[in-house]
Structures are given as structure tokens and as C-alpha cells.
Specification:
By secondary structure, this protein is mainly alpha-helical. The protein has one domain: MFS general substrate transporter like domains (Growth Hormone, Chain: A, Up-down Bundle). Helices cover 75% and strands 1% of the residues. A two-stranded antiparallel ribbon has the order 1-2. Helix 1 packs across helix 11, helix 6 runs antiparallel to helix 12 and helix 10 runs antiparallel to helix 14. The radius of gyration is 23 Å and the shape is globular. The structure holds glutamine (GLN).
Length: 524
């Protein structure tokens, strides 16, 4: 996936034309010194993330809002679990999404189809007030499938723009990460204003309108700016095997979609009762099981050399600690969002800002600080103080831990004052510390996966990275619903547990820095 630099061959109508020389955009510098294709991917992903981060914080607020306020009247625990299942499925879907692109559709068709499915999902959610509650959940399912097709594959094309790899590709990814966060910055402001102040469905609708703009941008610009990249899936040299593989993929997909439709139909008709908290808990066990079996398979049957095994061992360590980090960090739309709504004084100049506004600070800080962190790592390495990826992960966990300790103090103030509202600076500073953490861990993790992965498992290792995000989102959803106005005393305990887990994780990974360094020095 991401680090497969092989350019795809084909013409613009989508048929293979192997006699054409590959159009490599590496000497194109039209977009801030980068290929113009990056601008297409930047704006498509910006609108996709606009839609994702536009509805994510609204979900918990909407589902926990009372029926009279147009919400579902769910308790925070159930709403948190649903957001956990949803966000986790979005990341988990990138595994089959990447695979479908590689084997069946090619990157470009997958991205476009994904974008269309996401837009349809938003339309279903936006119209669910008129249609029915099942339309809301069907909309979430469409967004999950669409994002699975779009998110991993759009990142893969970013990598393909730079067949030469190296620092220019890293810089390309940094610009792309800015696109992600530009969408994530403006989204909660617009959808929050509309959703919380005008009507929930206006907020959901605005997120959908953003994705429709993304579909239009990608459809109009892809042929002009992406050349031949990502037009065709990889093909097996033997046409008979190719044919057989495609048939089994199509059968597998049809069975999966059929099972999903059946499940939704059974749930909607009330034949089966779904308890989201129990589903989320079982999903956690299943996903942990998948991770354990997958790593066991790699070590035992993966045919890895001794050195490759050492690298995979490092990936395993990074996977475990990334999961712990995301379990805390991804509480933004659940516990921290509920804290913003119920216990934060959001009045500025006499006007109460929507709770979702506070979500924008993380993205704002990423946009402002990403260049600073990139500069810091480069300067450190020039001075011989290069930090290893486990050391950077340790810093990331430590910063996030500090961010959650701040929330312990803030929630104790709330309890001490019997439910008073505290200054928004608590959350803003907590987000600042968490962003320090994100910038020490997330881009470092992504590039470590591409560097450490054994060649034949390159794409799958990126999937492992998303699996950590999936697990983290699920756990964050499960614990994040514990911010309940009826159980005030739970709140500092939740934040304290999160902060202490992060701190212990930081201490453990710092202790592993030297042994890992030694092991990697041997694995040359
Ligand atoms: N905020 C980043 C994005 O939306 C990373 C999220 C993650 O990997 N958990 O792409």
C-alpha cells in the first residue's frame, strides 16, 4: 500500500497500455514544490476528513440528547460504545479496503467509490429525521465501507507520487497530514454551529455537503493531475489465476454485504436485540485475538529471516504502545466532548460556543506545530541526538499522560463545586499536550511501519498500524462514556486511570529503548 512505489500503467480510460512510458510526476513542482496531483489528494482528503470529524463529535451529543431535544436519549455509556464501534470499524475497514484496491478495483476507482459511499452515508444520516432511525445506522455503515475504500488508498497514491521516495515523499506526507487537519479544524466549527445551534440534521447535512465537494474535486481533477497512477489493480501474471482470484473476491464481498444487510434487517425488525456495549466488548476481544494470531503467524509461518523477525518484534512493540496511546487520545469525541458540553464554561463575549468547537484545537495545534516537530527531529539528529522511534513514542505517551492529569485536576474542581463549569483552558491545554503526544507518535509510527516492514508484508504492516487505531478507538469509546452527569464521581477516576496507564506505558517503553536499539544494531 503506502510504500509501494511502483507506478501503475494505463491510459485515462482505465485500460492497460503497457507500451506507454509511465508518467512520473516527480519533476512536477506546481503545488508548493510538489506534484499537482498532491493538490487533488490534499483537497479530496481534506473534505473526507471534514465530513468524518464533522459528524464524529456530533454523534455522542446527538445520541445522548433527550428525545425532546431531537436526540435519541441514549445513556452516555451506550452512545460512547456506538461511537467506539463506528470509529473502530472505520479504521478496521481499511484492511479490506486496501486489499480490494490492490486486487480488484485499483486505487483511483476505490477512492471514488469510497467517496460516493461516504456521501450517500451522510445523506442517509442527514435525512434520517424524515426517514427513520435505521437510516441513521445504515448511514454510519455506508461511511465505514466508504472510508475503508478511501482512506488507505488515498495515502497509497500520495506515496506513488514520489517513486524516488526519500525526504521529498516525507515532505509530501506532511503536506497531506496538513490537509487532514485543515478538514478536521473547520469541520467541528461548521457542523457544531449548525448541529448544536440550528438542528442536528443541519450539522450532519453540512458534513455530507463537504464530502460531495470532495467527490466533485476528485472526479474533475484526477485525470488532469494524477496521470496514470493508481488506475489498475495489480494483476497475477497467470490470467487463469487472476480470473479465479477476482471471482473469489467478488463472491467474498457479496457474502459480506449480504450478511451485513441481513444483520441490519434483523436488528431493525427487532428479531435480534443489539446491546452496543456488549458488541463493543466482544469486538475488543476479537480484534485483540486477530492481532495476536497475526503476529504469531508472522513469526512462525511468515518465512521471515532472523533480521526481519527482529524488525517485526519492534513493530509489535510499537503496535502495543500505539494502541494504548489511541485509547486515550481518541476519547476526544466521547469523554472530553461530554466534559466540554456538561462541565466547561463555554461563554465568550456573552455567547456560548458549541461544545464541538473545542475539538478544533487539536487540529489547529497540529497545523501550527507539525513543522516545529519536523524541524526538532531533524535538528536533533544533525547534532547526533537522534531519538529512536520507541523513545519518541515514550515522549508521546508522556505528553498525553500529562494532558489527562490536567483533566483529573479539572474534574476534581467540577466535583468540588458540585457540578460547576470550569474554564475552557483546561481542555485547551490538555489538547495542546495531547497534540505534542500525537506529533511525537503518529507520523513517527507511520514512517516506522514503512521502514521496518519486511518487503513482502509492506502493505499489511500499514494495516497493522490502522488496527492499532481501530483498537484504540474502540477502547476509547468504551471508557469514554463514563462521563455521565448522573455519576459525577466516576469522572476523575476515568481520567486518572487513563493518565496512569499512559504514564506506566511511557516508563515501560523508555525502559525498552536501549534493548531495542541494541537489537536493531545487530539486525543490519
Ligand atoms: N488524525 C489522523 C487522521 O485522521 C490520525 C488518526 C489515527 O490514526 N488514529 O488521519
Amino acid at each position: 500500500m503506502i510504500n509501494d512505489p511502483t507506478p501503475q500503467l494505463g491510459n485515462q480510460s482505465g485500460t492497460v497500455a503497457v507500451d506507454l512510458p509511465p508518467r512520473l510526476p516527480s519533476d512536477d513542482t506546481a503545488f508548493f514544490g510538489h506534484p499537482r496531483g498532491l493538490s487533488t489528494l490534499f483537497f479530496t482528503e481534506m473534505w473526507e476528513r471534514f465530513s468524518y470529524y464533522g459528524i464524529r463529535p456530533l454523534l455522542v451529543l446527538y445520541m445522548t440528547a433527550a428525545l425532546v431535544d431531537g436526540g435519541f436519549g441514549f445513556d452516555p455509556k451506550t452512545a460512547g460504545a456506538i461511537v467506539g464501534i463506528y470509529a473502530s470499524s472505520v479504521y478496521l475497514a481499511s484492511l479490506p479496503g486496501g486489499w480490494i484496491a490492490d486486487r480488484l478495483l485499483g486505487l483511483r476507482r476505490s477512492i471514488r467509490l469510497g467517496a460516493i459511499l461516504i456521501a450517500l452515508g451522510h445523506i442517509a444520516i442527514g435525512l434520517s429525521a424524515m426517514l427513520s432511525r435505521p437510516a441513521f445506522f445504515a448511514g454510519l455503515a455506508l461511511i465505514v465501507m466508504g472510508t475503508g475504500l478511501l482512506k488507505p488508498n488515498i495515502s497509497a497514491i500520495v506515496g506513488d507520487l514520489y517513486p524516488e521516495g526519500g525526504a521529498r515523499r516525507d515532505a509530501g506526507f506532511s503536506i497531506f497530514y496538513m490537509g487532514i487537519n485543515t478538514g478536521a479544524l473547520i469541520a467541528p466549527i461548521i457542523t457544531g454551529l449548525l448541529g448544536e445551534k440550528v438542528g442536528w440534521h443541519w450539522g450532519f447535512g453540512a458534513a455530507g455537503a463537504g464530502m460531495i465537494v470532495g467527490v466533485i474535486v476528485f472526479s474533475l481533477r484526477q485525470n488532469k493531475t494524477l496521470g496514470n497512477l493508481g488506475l489498475e489493480p495489480s494483476r497475477h501474471p497467470d490470467p487463469v489465476v487472476q480470473e479465479r482470484q477476482q471471482r473469489s473476491i467478488k463472491t467474498g464481498l457479496a457474502m459480506f454485504v449480504g450478511a451485513l444487510v441481513l444483520l441490519v434487517a434483523l436488528a431493525v425488525s427487532g428479531v435480534i436485540q443489539i446491546d452496543p456495549v456488549r458488541v463493543a466488548e466482544s469486538m475488543r476481544i476479537v480484534m485483540l485475538g486477530i492481532a495476536v494470531l497475526y503476529f504469531a503467524y508472522l513469526f512462525v509461518l511468515g518465512g521471515l529471516t532472523g533480521d526481519e523477525k527482529k524488525r517485526v518484534a519492534v513493530i509489535l512493540v510499537l503496535f502495543v504502545f500505539a494502541t494504548i496511546f489511541w485509547s486515550a487520545f481518541e476519547q476526544a469525541p466521547t469523554s472530553l466532548n461530554l466534559f466540554a458540553r456538561d462541565y466547561t464554561d463555554r461563554v465568550v463575549f456573552g455567547w456560548e460556543m458549541p461544545a464541538t468547537f473545542l475539538q478544533a484545537f487539536n487540529s489547529l495545534f497540529v497545523i501550527l506545530l507539525a513543522p516545529v516537530f519536523a524541524w526538532l527531529w531533524i535538528t536533533l539528529s544533525r547534532r547526533g541526538g537522534d531519538l529512536s522511534s520507541p523513545a519518541k513514542f515514550g515522549l508521546g505517551l508522556l505528553f498525553a499522560s500529562l494532558g489527562f492529569f490536567l483533566m483529573v485536576a479539572a474534574s476534581k474542581l467540577v466535583i468540588g463545586g458540585h457540578g460547576i463549569r470550569v474554564s475552557p483552558w483546561w481542555l485547551i491545554l490538555s489538547y495542546l499536550l495531547q497534540t505534542f503526544g500525537e506529533l511525537s507518535l503518529s507520523p513517527v509510527g507511520l514512517s516506522s511501519m514503512t521502514k521496518l516492514a519486511p518487503r513482502k508484508f509492506a502493505g499489511q504492516m500499514m494495516g497493522v498500524w490502522f488496527l492499532a487505531a481501530a483498537l484504540g478507538n474502540l477502547i476509547a469509546g468504551l471508557v469514554g462514556g463514563d462521563v455521565d452527569p448522573n455519576k459525577l464521581e466516576q469522572m476523575p477516576a476515568l481520567f486518572q486511570q487513563t493518565a496512569i496507564s499512559l504514564l506506566i506505558a511511557a516508563v515501560v517503553i523508555f525502559a525498552l529503548v536501549v534493548p531495542i536499539r541494541r537489537m536493531m544494531a545487530e539486525a543490519k
